[in-house]
Amino acid sequence: MGGWQAIDRKTVPANGMGPGISDASKEKIRSFFPRYPSKRAVMLPALHIAQDELGYVSLTAMRQIAELLELPPAAVMDVVTFYTAFWTHPKGEKQLMLCRSLTCELLGADKLRERIEQKLGIKDHQTTKDGKFSFMIEECLAACDHGPCLMVNEKMHKCVTPEKLDQILNDPHSDRLDQPRSDLYDAPVHNRQHHHH
Amino acid sequence: MAYEKVLLKNAGKPNSRSIDVYRSGGGYEGLERALKMSPAELIELVKQANLRGRGGAGFPAGMKWSFLPPNREVTYLCINADESEPPTFSNRVLIDEDPHQIIEGTIIAGYATKTTVAYIYMRGEYCEQFHTLQKAVDEAYAAGYLGKNIRGSGWSMEMYLHRGAGAYVCGEETGLIESLEGKRGWPRIKPPFPAVEGAFRKPTVVNNVETVACLPHILTRGLDWWKSVGPAHSLGPKLFCISGAVNKPGCYEAPCTITVRELIYSPEFGGGMRNGKKCKAVFPGGLSMGVLRGDTFPKRPAGEAIDHRKDYDELDCIMDFEDIKKYDLLGLGTAAAVVVSEDDDIRDVLVNNCRFYAHESCGQCTQCREGTAWMYKVAKRIQAGAGRIYDLDLIEEMTLNMGMMPGMSICGLPDGAAWPIRTLVQKFRKEFEAHIRAQKPQAAQEFIKRVNPAAYDLPILQGRANAATGGTFSFDHYVGTQK
Predict the structure, then answer these.
(1) Which residues 51-70 of A have a C-beta within 8 angstroms of B?
(2) Average pLDDT score over residue span A37-52
């Protein structure tokens, strides 16, 4: 726990405006338009699509989405900054999301947090130097019957013990789902290949 | 008496997610019956069943539907699957085990409200569940239960899943609507209520997943069966979650006649305390509804010896919509209990509660935004061993000045924040005082010297400040690994 930290909205990130989304993603976003009476309502699907492709929502992507939804870019940034799921700077290939709500904490989530921080050398909302892991601590992930729980990208790991945590960190397929994905949304970019094997 | 499972009857069956298994157990029969009735008759039936909303507030669903204006062209139905209340997971279990039950219920609710488009708003963290439910929706479309002219009734409805992105406040119905519209999930000032002016400024109904899952059973099993389950003010089967320091955490179905003690100790439910520990505290309805003591609660918590004739045992609390209020709880809530054992420090529980609400306050109303963060700071101070007796009074005073009940806020989140924190401080006051009395006399001064009082670790930065201030991440390196 450091000192007071605030959001820096003035400094442009080191990679400038960042990459943009592909034409395929734009087409995917457009395919959501018939579902809603307003284009603005496609905001959350569009941000999910952008984050799935880029790993985060870059400033360029925000502008592109604003253009697609016929909104000022500030309206997109407004939404991006409200929801905890969206990252505004690059994150690692695997996002570790640890639950810290009451049940998980009673069952030892804080020990897991310490272990993750110590093993990977990163704290909440940081990414390892090799770009493999990002770590975030979230409120209730709704798997309290199997606490403490840890999500790796889309995959929920239940009843995570320190030993199981080591396995999860070493397993290259720790984010693979046991079930078929819906093709409505693409998989996060880093694990697209092993879903299309 | 053995209770026959209804909502969870398909749970554990092989391939229970598929439409074939669902139909072989009588699935979609409720819908066929509903389509033979008129929407008005259906609303009347649900009103007679007094189906109370399972999402938290317990508002009767039939009543909610009847608030819709009579002459309307467009109606939206939002199904609330933004289950974020710790420690609730019953919606997840329903989606995992029996997604078609939810879809059938949604179609029935849609028919009763003459809905044109139904949105199922799922929380963003439900990734696996999203794929499960989307597959079920595709199956339902293929079988003609959704789309144009459903089962030859002349009525059409589309159903879409909408993924959230991690915000507790989007479980509030107008916050959900704002989020659906592509804005930040800031709850709206009511009136106008969603039934009159909701999603996209059109009449809208917001129902919980579990509420609509009850509808097929009311239709197939009939009103007499429904009224035979549970007490008159809390009819029908209900899902109860239990987690924490118990042997068998899980989601269980029961009528609203079980007590908190049964939920923890009965072999059918929680199976007793883990390692035979004593129960210190229970949050029986999700965090927001407040806390029960695991032992006898003295009516005068500040002092005198316990009098068993006057004081009451809080674990006798019945999990229904009304009895629970006698124990200074806000309501049944999501009926999800978390059990705290005697080994756990009550100060940690307080900090965890305060942090949750400080993190999830949407920031719209001042007393909620500032109050939750303030209480979090005070709780951290107590946890760090620098509390003052006065802090307990301070927290109590803050909780009394937050929320809709004193008329300070737009939505109920601060009420739900104040309630557990106030009940924790009141019901466990002696324990907090004992911790504070055991501190060194100079603890508070030392703590202030050691820590910047403004420093509390709310994750407001989302990594942005790390990038700007040279965190561990290197952008150059990242771009290098991409190619």
Answers:
(1) 69
(2) 96
pLDDT for A70 equals: 96
B453 and chain A in contact, CB less than 8 A: no
CB contact under 8 Å between A43 and B183, yes or no, is yes
pLDDT score recorded for residue A8: 52
- Give every CB contact of residue B236 below 8 A, 6+ residues apart in sequence: B49, B51, B214, B217, B218, B226, B229, B230, B255, B256
- Give the separation between CA A20 and CA A53, rounded to whole angstroms: 9
**Nearest chain B alpha carbon to A79:** B184
Burial of B437 (0-12, 13-18, 19+ CB in 10 A): exposed
Residues of B in contact with A43 (CB under 8 A): 182-183
A112–B contact, CB cutoff 8 A: no
Give domain status of residue B4, yes or no.
Answer: no
Identify the CA nearest to B368 among candidates B359, B377, B378: B359
pLDDT at B35: 95
A139: which chain B residues are within 8 Å (Cβ-Cβ)? 84, 86, 168, 356, 359-360
Identify whether B443 is part of a domain.
yes
CB contact under 8 A, A144 and B88: yes
Nearest by CB to residue A182, choosing from B131, B457, B481, is B131
Structure tokens at B475: 């952008």
Does the pLDDT value for residue A97 go beyond 90?
yes
Q: The CATH number of the domain where B279 resides is what?
A: 3.10.20.600
For B455, the closest of A3, A15, A125 (CB atoms) is A3
Closest CA to B427 of B241, B237, B284: B284
Tracing tokens 């909610």 back to the chain, one arrives at B64
In chain A, where are the structural domains located? 2-82, 94-176
Q: Are residues B382 and B312 in the same domain?
A: no
Q: In sequence order, what are the residues at sequence separation of 6 or more whose Cβ sits closer than 8 angstroms to the Cβ of residue B41?
A: none
Shared domain for B211 and B73, answered yes or no, is yes
CATH number for the region A94-176 comes to: 3.40.30.10
Interface membership of A149 toward B (CB under 8 Å): no
What rounded mean pLDDT belongs to chain B? 88
Structural domain count of chain B: 3
User: Which of B166, B476, B478 is opposite residue A138, by nearest beta carbon?
Assistant: B166
On chain B, the residues whose CB falls within 8 A of the CB of A102 are 86-87, 244, 283, 287, 338, 349, 352-353, 356
Residues B261 and B315: beta-carbon distance below 8 Å: yes
Q: Band the pLDDT of B466: cuts 50, 70, 90.
A: very low
The distance in angstroms from the start CA to the end CA of chain B is 65
Same domain, B325 and B356: no
B306 plus B365 within the same structural domain:
no
- Residues of B within 8 A of A106 (CB-CB) are 244-245, 338, 340-341, 344
- Peptide bond between residue B255 and the one before it cis (omega within 30 degrees of 0): no
The predicted model gives B384-395 an average pLDDT of: 88
Q: How many CB atoms lie within 10 A of CB B393?
A: 12
